[in-house]
Amino acid sequence: MWWRDAVVYQIYPRSFQDSDGDGVGDLRGITQRLDYLSWLGVDAFWLSPIYPSPLADFGYDVSDHTGVDPQLGTLAEVDELVAAAHERGLRVLLDLIPCHTSIEHPWFREHPDWYIWSPVDGPPNNWVSAFGGPAWSRDEQTGRWYLHSFYPEQPDLDWRNPEVVEAMQGVVRFWIERGVDGFRLDAIDRLIKDAELRDDPPASGDFPLPLRQDAAKLKRVYSGNRPEVVQALGSIREAAGEALLVGEVFLPTSEYPRYLEVLDLVFAFELLFSPWDAERLRAAIEPAAALERVAWVMSNHDFDRLASRVGPEHLRDAALLLLTLPGAAFVYQGDEIGMLNGPGADPPFDRAGRDRFRHPMQWDGSENGGFTTGKPWLPPIDPQERNVAAQREDPASLLTHYRHLIAYRREPGDGFRLLDSDPGTLTYERGGGVISVEVDATSG
Ligand code: NOJ
Predict the structure, then answer these.
(1) Are 38 and 360 in contact (CB under 8 A)?
(2) Using the 8-state DSSP alphabet, how is residue 115 labeled?
(3) Is ligand 1 within 6 A of the CB of residue 185?
(4) Cα Rg for the chain, rounded, in angstroms?
(5) How far apart are CA 91 and CA 2, in angstroms?
(6) Each residue of 384-412: pLDDT tens digit?
(7) For residues 53 and 349, is the Cβ–Cβ distance under 8 A?
(8) Is the pTM of this model over 0.90?
(9) What is residue 377's three-state secondary structure?
(10) Which atom of ligand 1 is nearest to the CA of 150?
(11) DSSP 8-state class, residue 196
C-alpha cells in the first residue's frame, strides 16, 4: 500500500511542458521534467486525460480510451514516460473516464446500445447535466434522445450492459499491462443510474459542495449515487487488480463509505471547498479523517486555484495542512509556487469557465515561463513573479516550504487528533507532535 501516505502530483498535460514548440504541453515534456518531481519529493503523479479527444471537455470527452492524443504524443512515449518515472521511483496514475465517451467515439455509432437512450420521444425525466440544462439531448442522426451527465458531446455509457463492462475492463487491463500504477476515476458516482430512470427528488438541506443552479435544485439519488455502483466498481477492481483506484466522488463525505468498499481512496472534496475558517475546516476534516482512506486535496483543474481561493497570505498554512493531514495528499501543478487563477481565454476554450485554472506551468522568469518556445495555448500568467527556478534557489520560498513538508512526511509517525484551540488556529496532534495552522478567526 505505497499510496497510504503518498503525495501525488496532478499534471494537466496540456499545460505542464511543451517539448516541440506547438504551444501545447506533451508527454515528452513531462518526461523531461521528471527530475523536478523527484527533487520535490512526490511519490507519484496523476496525468489528466492523455487520450484522443475532440476537446469539448478538454480530454474528458474521450474518443479512444487506449490511444494517445497526437498533440500530446504516442503510445511509445507513454512507455518512455512510465519507464523514466519508474527508474526514479515515481508511480504513474492515469485518468480513467468510464462513465461517458465523446460523442465522436466510434462506439456511439457502432454500439448505440452501449449508451443510455430515452424510451420516449423527449427527456424521460428531470435529470440535469452537471454543466447546466437538461441531461438529455436529441441525436440528430436517429432522432432519439440520449443521456449526458456532462456536456451533450459526452453521452453516458450504460453500465447495465455487460458489453460496456467488458470493454472498460479491457481498457483498464491495457494500461495496467503498459505499467501504469493506478487510476483516478472520473465522476465515478455517476457510473450507474436508476434502471427505471425515475425523477430525482427536490434537494433538501445544504449540499456542502458547489453545484450549478439546475443541479443544486435536485437530490442526486436516481441520476447517480446508486447502491448498484458497488458492483459496477467491482468490475473495474477485478481488471485493475492491486492498482491504486482513487475516486472522484462529488458528494458529501458521508456518502463515501459505499465507494470505499471497492476503491482505495476518494478525494476529500469538503476540504477543497472549505472556507479558511477553523470551525468549517474542522467540520470538513474530522469525518473525512475518520474514514482513514481519503485523498486530501485543495485544488485541481476544475476549481479556483488554491492561491486565489484561500488568498496568497494563507498559502504556507494551506500547504502545512494539506501535507500533514493523515493519509494521501494530492497537489495540483503550480500550487507549489503559488500560481493564481489566470485570465483564461477569449473566446474561452472551456464553456464551463475553467480555463483560468489551467494556465501553463511557470518554470522560469522568461516570457513564456519556460513552458514553450512557441505560442502557448493559454497565455502565461506571471512567470516573472512566480516561477520554479527562482523559488528553488530561495530557502524562504513557498516551493522550498512544500519540499520540506514533503520530506517531513517520510517520518510522520501514526496518530491524528484534532485539538481544541483558539479561533484563529486549527490545531492537531500528528505523530508525536502538535501542528497549528493559522486560519481566519471563526465568525460564528
Ligand atoms: C470531472 C473532471 O475533473 C472534469 O474536468 C470533467 O469536466 C468532468 N469530470 C466530466 O468528465
Answers:
(1) no
(2) B
(3) no
(4) 21
(5) 9
(6) 999 999 999 999 999 999 999 999 887 66
(7) no
(8) yes
(9) coil
(10) 10
(11) T
Cβ–ligand 1 distance for 150 under 6 Å, the answer yes
pLDDT tens digit string along 177-233? Answer: 999 999 999 999 999 999 999 999 999 878 999 999 999 999 999 999 999 999 999
Sign of CA dihedral 383, 389, 394, 396: positive
Nearest-10 Cα torsion for 250, 255, 261, 266 = 30
Residue pair 23/372 in contact by the 8 Å Cβ criterion = yes
**280 Cβ contact list (under 8 Å, min separation 6):** 274, 442
Longest dimension (CA), the chain: 64
Q: pLDDT tens for residues 294-346?
A: 999 999 999 999 999 999 999 999 999 999 999 999 999 999 999 999 999 99
Q: Where are the alpha helices (DSSP H) in 90-161?
A: 106-110
**Taking each helix axis from N to C terminus, what angle separates 162-177 and 229-240, rounded to the nearest 10 degrees?**
30
Please give the helix or strand (H or E) that residue 93 lies within, else none: strand 91-96
The sign of the CA dihedral 298, 303, 309, 314 is: positive
Give the chain's count of helices (H) and strands (E).
14, 13
Q: Which of 311, 352, 301, 354 is nearest to 331 (CA)?
A: 301
Does 57 sit in the ligand 1 pocket, CB within 6 Å? yes
Q: Which three cell numbers stand for residue 112?
A: 448505440
What spacing in Å lies between the alpha carbon of 246 and ligand 1's midpoint?
14
- Identify the sign of the CA torsion 242, 248, 250, 252: positive
Ligand 1 atom nearest 48 alpha carbon:
3
Q: How many residues does the chain have?
A: 444
Q: How far apart are CA 191 and CA 97, in angstroms?
A: 10
Question: How far apart, in whole angstroms, are the C-alpha atoms of residue 255 and residue 115?
Answer: 26
| CA of 131, closest atom in ligand 1 | 7
The cell for 429 is 496532534
Are the beta carbons of 269 and 297 closer than 8 angstroms? yes
Gap from CA of 411 to ligand 1 centroid (Å): 35
65: closest CA among 263, 239, 251?
Answer: 239
- Looking up cell 506551468 gives 361
**pLDDT (tens digit per residue) in 61-120:** 999 999 999 999 999 999 999 999 999 999 999 999 999 999 999 999 999 999 999 999
Report whether 295 contacts 267 (CB < 8 A): yes
CB atoms near residue 257 (< 10 Å): 11
What distance in Å separates the CA atoms of residue 442 and residue 424, rounded to the nearest whole number? Answer: 7
Q: Catalytic site residues? A: 186, 242
